């Protein structure tokens, strides 16, 4: 029988503890967690084996373990653990470390990693937007946004006397030239991070991968699960998470569609914003914005009153960004409709800070779990890992 050498890394244990898995050492391997987890396949279930590996500091193995992404942090295991070892939190810490490990531009990952660094993380989009305003000759209007009302957009005299956000950030030179490269940066960083992770998964397979069926079919199945929150619905302790997760997820889908359709209005139909409230784009945007706010408040309330497990700063940063996007987006519109120029323009500026933050940091903080989990689930399906029984019922 071939010997397997266990590589341990004591610093990795400290890293797990520092990232929210501070209870890891309490585990005494009773396996209750693996039994109660509705998402663990029968064959080599999690999270007990991850708890063992974490206690041994088996960094290499854990950073190539797709099972940490099959966990949806429902906390059923944490609720039943007789030792208070909080396996759900330990797996959450491992997912955070995994994202940071494989993503490029470590400097950006570090900025969002610790709350003490968050002010600097937010400073970056603020500085980018101030440069944007300076290059467009609009910087002085931040001190006096009211003056923008009397201006017109070039060739659009109908905008005189109105609050139009394009007067502060012109569509092409203020928005497109800055936000499109930021979005492209996010795509490239995701591509590099996910490619690194895919190579790692395949370099030391925790289970054999057998390519079955088409790749597109496999990913389609995984994406369908995400769209319907199928695995979240199997949670018992935090059942509400499937609803809040769906609400926020579909809000983002709605807002992405709104942005895409607004681009068609702008570039193809030559129909500039602001659109009337009865316009389909406006209706979709407003419904999505309201749903995002409701989802954010609901998530924050659920997290604040958590009876099982703990919240990590990783979770809270995503909640702050989701809530910030929702409140500032809807706030900017409401203040515009109320004709409160100064507060409307400032709220819009802050909204763009959140949007830019999302673009720059998406590959490095919790929202990246969408992509990593999709990849890991596809890998598990390829490996014929076996669906949990509860998912097949
Ligand atoms: S984490 Fe808790 S339930 Fe799981 S094996 Fe360890 S002690 Fe048992
Ligand atoms: S948090 Fe939920 S999904 Fe994750 S291991 Fe525990 S019981 Fe399973």
Give every kind of bound small molecule, once each: iron/sulfur cluster
What count of helical segments does DSSP give?
18
pLDDT < 50 stretches = none
Overall structural class, as computed from helix and strand content, comes to: mainly alpha
Give the total of beta strands: 0
Gyration radius, to the nearest Å? 23 Å
Overall outline: elongated
Mean pLDDT: 89
How many domain modules?
2
The sequence of SSEs as H and E is: HHHHHHHHHHHHHHHHHH
The portion of residues forming beta strands comes to under 5%
- Cα distance, first to last residue? 38 Å
Summarize the amount of helix as a percent range.
55-70%
- Largest pleated sheet: none
Question: What structural keywords apply?
Answer:
single chain, 393 residues, Fumarate Reductase Iron-sulfur Protein, Chain B, domain 2, 2 domains, binds iron/sulfur cluster
What does this structure look like?
It is elongated and about 75 Å long. It is mainly α and 393 residues long. The chain has two domains: 92 residues, Alpha-helical ferredoxin (Fumarate Reductase Iron-sulfur Protein, Chain B, domain 2, Orthogonal Bundle); 277 residues, no CATH class. The chain binds iron/sulfur cluster (SF4) (2 copies). The site of one iron/sulfur cluster (SF4) has 15 residues, from helix 6 and helix 7. GO terms for molecular function: 4 iron, 4 sulfur cluster binding; metal ion binding; oxidoreductase activity. It comes from Thermodesulfobium narugense DSM 14796. InterPro entries: 4Fe4S_Fe-S-bd, 4Fe4S_Fe_S_CS, HdrC_iron-sulfur_subunit, Helical_ferredxn, NarG-like_sf.
């Amino acid at each position: 029988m071939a010997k397997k050498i266990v590589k341990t890394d004591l610093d990795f244990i400290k890293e797990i503890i520092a990232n929210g898995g501070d209870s890891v050492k309490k585990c005494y391997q009773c396996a209750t967690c693996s039994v109660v987890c509705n998402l663990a396949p029968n064959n080599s279930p999690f999270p007990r084996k991850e708890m063992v590996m974490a206690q041994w500091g088996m960094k290499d193995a854990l950073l190539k373990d797709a099972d940490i992404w099959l966990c949806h942090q429902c906390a059923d295991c944490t609720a039943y653990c007789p030792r208070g070892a909080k396996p759900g939190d330990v797996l959450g810490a491992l997912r955070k470390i995994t994202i940071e490990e494989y993503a490029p531009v470590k400097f950006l990952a570090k900025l969002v990693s610790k709350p003490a660094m968050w002010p600097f993380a937010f400073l970056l989009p603020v500085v980018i937007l101030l440069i944007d305003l300076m290059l467009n000759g609009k910087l002085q209007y931040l001190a006096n946004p009211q003056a923008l009302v009397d201006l017109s957009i070039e060739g659009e005299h109908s905008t005189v006397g109105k609050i139009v956000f394009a007067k502060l950030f012109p569509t092409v030179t203020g928005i497109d030239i800055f936000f499109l490269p930021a979005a492209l940066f996010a795509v490239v960083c995701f591509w590099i991070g996910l490619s690194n992770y895919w190579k790692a998964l395949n370099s030391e397979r925790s289970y054999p991968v057998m390519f079955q069926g088409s790749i597109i079919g496999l990913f389609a199945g995984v994406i369908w699960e995400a769209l319907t929150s199928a695995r979240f619905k199997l949670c018992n302790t935090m059942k509400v998470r499937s609803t809040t997760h769906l609400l926020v997820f579909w809000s983002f889908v709605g807002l992405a569609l709104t942005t895409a359709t607004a681009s068609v209005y702008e570039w193809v139909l030559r129909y500039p914003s602001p659109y009337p409230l009865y316009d389909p784009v406006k209706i979709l945007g407003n419904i999505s914005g309201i749903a995002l706010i409701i989802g954010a408040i609901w998530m924050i309330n659920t997290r604040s009153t958590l009876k099982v497990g703990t919240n990590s700063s990783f979770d809270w940063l995503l909640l702050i960004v989701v809530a910030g996007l929702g409140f500032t987006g809807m706030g900017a519109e409401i203040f515009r409709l109320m004709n409160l120029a100064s507060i409307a323009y400032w709220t819009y500026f802050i909204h763009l800070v959140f949007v830019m933050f999302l673009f720059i940091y998406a590959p490095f903080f919790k929202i990246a779990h969408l992509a990593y989990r999709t990849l890991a689930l596809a890998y598990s399906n390829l490996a014929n890992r076996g669906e949990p029984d509860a998912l097949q019922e």
